[in-house]
Amino acid sequence: xxxxxxxxxxxxxxxxxxxxxxxxxxxxxxxxxxxxxxxxxxxxxxxxxxxxxxxxxxxxxxxxxxxxxxxxxxxxxxxxxxxxxxxxxxxxxxxxxxxxxxxxxxxxxxxxxxxxxxxxxxxxxxxxxxxxxxxxxxxxxxxxxxxxxxxxxxxxxxxxxxxxxxxxxxxxxxxxxxxxxxxxxxxxxxxxxxxxxxxxxxxxxxxxxxxxxxxxxxxxxxxxxxxxxxxxxxxxxxxxxxxxxxxxxxxxxxxxxxxxxxxxxxxxxxxxxxxxxxxxxxxxxxxxxxxxxxxxxxxxxxxxxxxxxxxxxxxxxxxxxxxxxxxxxxxxxxxxxxxxxxxxxxxxxxxxxxxxxxxxxxxxxxxxxxxxxxxxxxxxxxxxxxxxxxxxxxxxxxxxxxxxxxxxxxxxxxxxxxxxxxxxxxxxxxxxxxxxxxxxxxxxxx
Length: 446
What we know:
The protein has helices spanning about 1-10, 15-25, 220-225, 425-445, and strands at about 40-50, 55-65, 80, 90-95, 95, 120-125, 155-160, 175-180, 185, 190-195, 195-200, 205-210, 210-220, 230-235, 240-245, 260, 285, 295-300, 305-315, 320-325, 325-330, 335-340, 345, 355-360, 370, 380-385, 405, 410. It is about 10% helix and about 35% strand.
């Protein structure tokens, strides 16, 4: 409606191309987080009204990470919302509010768990008290992607809420302004859906919520960080040139906010953030690209029917370990992957039969943790790909990826005209006949 009114009210003196640009710009949401490698990606919050106790009601809240490769690592999610009235949380299981708030209106009785108008809820840590646990809780706010571990991609907690004093019949109104407390995520408004059904007694019995609402949250890399977080360098056995990450891929030395550790300097000790602490700003090793993470793609060897690639991921951040890391690559020959060494691998068929995207991640208890910058701050793998005679070639940079993302954030690739190329032997081949003719002429003369 707003875009239509904008068209109707266009100024007569405005140039047509300016008008078209402004119209298109006004029609696009700045928080759009569409990812072509995972077009259905989102985190969904499900709010189930389970029980009406008269003066209070019970709610079950679930957080589902419906993303193929993007996950939530420590310090984890911090869910918040705004109550419509003066609701208060009497008790919680599976999570806790970070602040109790002002509960002075409940004098003379047991105080509620939280009286905040906008409570901030965090997951319990592993090993929490048994009487405070709930199904699928106690992961410290960590949510895996659906590809890496389908058993840990969601979290659930339950709470008992006091009805607002102004209108006891208003309990069915959902709270407003949901937020996951994660950089880059934007949540929409709640909308009612069919009541959730639950399995009980070994799936022999079905129960269901009284009412259910969903809230959808999407991720935008631009909103998460104004600058990229990783870059890609390239090399090949048939060319002595190593193409480095583009200069100033993530930041430039000397600019505000670009902190780095020079060679010989002692970096600070790494301290992992707690559940309610913010992630520290990157502190990287000084480089021409200033990226916290670097991915190197090396075309290592060529066989008769196969070719071999080596991938190395280097952590250049001194204040962060990457747990449950993953790498997503887009390459036309990934449909012919024969073997991957020391990494887990799974194709991502986001578009039916188009199999040109794959996801790599570490093996549990072996290399699933990418340590901070240092001698052990890297992981690497090699893979064999079958040569497809219809499309395979070493020319024009075909063996290098079209796109790479690390932990869900797209990496900066070198420009295509800098890719390692095959040696140019044309001049030597054309020069050979002239050399032979010269030698023959000299012999003939003498």
